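Hey everyone, long-time lurker, first post.

I ran two proteins through the pipeline my lab uses and got sequence/structure pairs for each. Pasting them in order. The first:
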Amino acid sequence: MDKPIKLTRQMKILGVILDDRLNGLAHLDYLKVKTGKILNRLTVARSRKGLSGRVLKILYKRALERIIVYAAPAWWAGSVNQRNKIITLQRQVLLAVTEAFRTTSTAALHVLSGIEPVDQVCDMETEIYKAKQGQQISTFLGRDIEPISLDAYVDQWQHPAEISDVRMDPFPSSSSLAIYTDGSKMNNRVGAAFCVLEPELSSEYLYRLADHNTVFQAELTALHQALLWKKQQRPRDLCNIFTDSLSSLKAIQKLRPRNNLVEKIKDLCDETVSLQWGQGPHRHCRE
């Protein structure tokens, strides 16, 4: 109990160096040493094994860049000192990829290598994190971002027993009621649609979405509207719902999708609904 408490000016938490000034410079010094060791090994491998600049670029994008921008929202502030340090760090990689003279300007190295400035990548990672957390974003890379164009998530607590476990059925159920959904984006115009077959085409519904919506959001909207129609018109009938969006089905299968629209879809899915993945019959929705 008589041991003195050791004071330190910096500490490492989950791979991030936090210093007493909280300016991120200590973490950048740590990254310079860490990435320098890896880059030295890659340079040796290039001279001995004949690795091309294209391979080094892939290794940088897949490994080194991810190491550099790891947890950027926690330490990146975009200050002048941070930008100078991180660009200097990246410059060594650009020289190795391009094999250019050391007197070549950094801007020219970015153009020759096709690698974007890492400080802008940190800006992007930080702004994406803010968007996911529902924080205010005014501009990014000189472009104004409207709050309405951000897909914000409102976390609503649910008891684990109330969370629906939705599965994609491998084969359609023996039901004469089928709904085909589709979402698309053409000429910067986004729309969703679904059509009902029982067994012939009986009705179809079209929805216009905002231009900034994605195809993924359009596919989810089509599924959501189809399930709402089914709940209102055929609540007790078995129904096969077909979609060509495998990403939507995978999102619905997640236990906690962190998407309010997906959660609404999960709540509407019951034992009478059979979700199917298919690419053919839904063309009737467009005709």
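...and the second, right after it:
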Amino acid sequence: MTAKISCSGCRDGAGFDLPITMAFQPILDCGAGTVFAHEALVRGAAGEGAGLVLAQVSEANRYAFDQQCRVRAIEQAAALGLAADGANLSINFLPNAVYEPRACIRLTLAAAMRTGFPINRIIFEFTEVERLDTDHILNILRTYRAMGFQTAIDDFGAGYAGLGLLSKFQPDIVKLDMDLIRDIDTSTVKQAIVGSTLRMLRDLGVTPLCEGVETLGEYEFLRG
């Protein structure tokens, strides 16, 4: 039996009333000395911070919000010429705002085609802090990968999915939670945890990223 999917948010992206824009945070490849990706971070069009914007997201409008964020990120990244330097574009998405992956990706594909942003340089990342239906998220990730997008797990080590999800699906990228990175140069416990995690990810062919590197000591330890 085939179910008919009805989702006004996926059809037109309307329904989230607060105007939004995007800020772009560079993700650096310190070894190569280049920008690996630009992460799109939502902001209010009048300067509102992410917290205020996210506070407006509800069960009723999260689908429209997710759609608007994807399209706005691609349009603004293209307008700023962020695709020209060969870097990727990382977009956060809400797994629980995706009814059916192929249906809900339509506006994203249209934005990429309209702006000329290469699909294979778009990374879809989700945070494992949100409790997820594992089968649902696996379906999304596998569908996105099959369509040519890159996939990433954000805040790895801080939430629900963790190793269980990783054993079933190996994304292109795993971003280690910043709490694991903070003061890693002085914490032997964090050094052991992060060291073993990095070895595991490399064995699996997954690119590791470390979030929240803010001191010279943290940077030098991770480079070593």
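Reply from user beta_strand_b:
Welcome! Quick read of the second one: The longest strand covers residues 34-44. Residues 1-6 have pLDDT under 50 and may be disordered.
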